[in-house]
């Protein structure tokens, strides 16, 4: 990555993306895996998806298995002592402003702390969401049976994602490459921030038609996606306004952003003024000299 600079947060872009969700998973996993849920406190049930009426009944007494992430969803598998069958999975989405953190008994909830899972060792998994665009839901069957998960593309850090996939899926597509890259059926979890940064690293104009990009350039783009996401996870995500990790820490990747949120500022590579356009109803900043 090129250069370091703190930037102001754009007011309309606050949604936690894949690195923020993965950072959350890594942060809370050591505190919740293998623990039993002894109490569930719901302070606000009216989230984007209403909290299931039977959630307390389903969760109390259940033990949490190994946490997983699929795209921007967190999956908490649950089982009950003495039962061989999997009890189900708690599906969590952080929405635009949500965060999960670990609290302790006696720590008073803050405004917008909507839900607590109290664990048998006194730890609390606490959900905070000022905008209430996130949700927690019950997944009784498999991922393949859930409409929210079944049609998702591959994980960008998995072997199933590469330039060949981008190349063949893009043939005949006339939409711009940036919204193509952000399509969850193509690859999951590459949201606005990281799509902009990956396209900059790959030297690709975000406005270019997806179907007119060569195999070689898609290979560079896939590698750039991997590089950007891996770096963001290492840095704990990108805190623009609301996001904090499972331990309450902000993400530091925003210090390394090259284009996102920097319209009108000089490109870190060539010094040209960065340009702002709207693609797929999303703000997109790029360098007209370095990205062609």
TrEMBL record:
Query: Which reactions fall under this protein's catalytic activity?
Result: Hydrolysis of DNA containing ring-opened 7-methylguanine residues, releasing 2,6-diamino-4-hydroxy-5-(N-methyl)formamidopyrimidine; 2'-deoxyribonucleotide-(2'-deoxyribose 5'-phosphate)-2'-deoxyribonucleotide-DNA = a 3'-end 2'-deoxyribonucleotide-(2,3-dehydro-2,3-deoxyribose 5'-phosphate)-DNA + a 5'-end 5'-phospho-2'-deoxyribonucleoside-DNA + H(+)
| SMART domains membership | Fapy_DNA_glyco, H2TH
Q: Which GO terms describe its biological process?
A: base-excision repair
For the Formamidopyrimidine-DNA glycosylase catalytic domain, which residue ranges apply? 16-134
UniProt keyword Transmembrane, yes or no: no
Q: Which residues form the FPG-type domain?
A: 258-292
| Residues passing through the membrane, by range | none
- The record's EC number reads 3.2.2.23, 4.2.99.18
* Cofactor(s) this protein requires: Zn(2+)
Q: Which residues act catalytically here?
A: 16-17, 72, 282
Q: Name one GO molecular function term.
A: damaged DNA binding
Pfam families from the entry?
Answer: Fapy_DNA_glyco (PF01149), H2TH (PF06831), zf-FPG_IleRS (PF06827)
Domain of life per record: Bacteria
Q: Which PROSITE patterns match?
A: FPG_CAT (PS51068), ZF_FPG_1 (PS01242), ZF_FPG_2 (PS51066)
InterPro entries named in the record: DNA_glyclase_Znf_dom_DNA_BS, FPG_cat, FPG_Glyclase, FPG_N, H2TH_FPG, Ribosomal_uS13-like_H2TH, Znf_DNA_glyclase/AP_lyase, Znf_FPG/IleRS
Which residues are recorded as binding DNA? 112, 131, 173
User: Does the keyword field hold Repeat?
Assistant: no
Gene3D superfamilies the record matches = 1.10.8.50, MutM-like, N-terminal
What binding partners and quaternary form does the record give?
Monomer.
What is the protein's known function?
Involved in base excision repair of DNA damaged by oxidation or by mutagenic agents. Acts as DNA glycosylase that recognizes and removes damaged bases. Has a preference for oxidized purines, such as 7,8-dihydro-8-oxoguanine (8-oxoG). Has AP (apurinic/apyrimidinic) lyase activity and introduces nicks in the DNA strand. Cleaves the DNA backbone by beta-delta elimination to generate a single-strand break at the site of the removed base with both 3'- and 5'-phosphates.
Kindly give the HAMAP family that the UniProt entry links to this protein: Fapy_DNA_glycosyl
Family in the record: Belongs to the FPG family.
Protein name listed in UniProt: Formamidopyrimidine-DNA glycosylase
Output the lineage of the source organism: Bacteria, Pseudomonadati, Pseudomonadota, Gammaproteobacteria, Oceanospirillales
């Amino acid at each position: 990555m090129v250069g370091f600079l703190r930037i102001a947060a754009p007011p309309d872009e606050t949604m936690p993306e894949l690195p923020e969700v993965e950072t959350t998973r890594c942060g809370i996993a050591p505190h919740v895996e293998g623990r039993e849920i002894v109490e569930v406190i719901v302070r606000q049930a009216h989230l984007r998806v209403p909290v299931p009426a039977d959630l307390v009944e389903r969760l109390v007494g259940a033990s949490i298995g190994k946490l997983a992430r699929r795209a921007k969803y967190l999956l908490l598998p649950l089982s009950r002592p003495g039962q061989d069958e999997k009890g189900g999975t708690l599906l969590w989405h952080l929405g635009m402003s949500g965060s999960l953190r670990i609290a302790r008994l006696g720590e008073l909830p803050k405004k917008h702390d909507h839900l607590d899972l109290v664990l048998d060792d006194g730890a609390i998994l606490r959900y905070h969401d000022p905008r209430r665009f996130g949700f927690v839901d019950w997944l009784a069957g498999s991922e393949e049976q859930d409409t929210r998960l079944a049609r998702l593309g591959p994980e960008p850090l998995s072997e199933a994602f590469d330039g060949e996939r981008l190349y063949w899926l893009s043939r005949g597509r006339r939409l711009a490459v940036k919204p193509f890259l952000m399509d969850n059926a193509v690859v999951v979890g590459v949201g606005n921030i990281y799509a902009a940064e990956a396209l900059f690293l790959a030297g690709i104009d975000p406005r270019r038609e997806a179907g007119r990009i060569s195999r070689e350039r898609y290979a560079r783009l896939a590698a750039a996606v991997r590089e950007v996401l891996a770096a963001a996870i290492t840095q704990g995500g990108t805190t623009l306004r609301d996001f904090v990790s499972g331990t309450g820490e902000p993400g530091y990747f925003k210090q390394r952003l090259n284009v996102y949120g920097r319209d009108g500022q000089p490109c870190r590579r060539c010094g040209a003024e960065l340009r702002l356009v709207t693609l797929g109803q999303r703000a997109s900043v790029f360098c007209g000299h370095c990205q062609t």
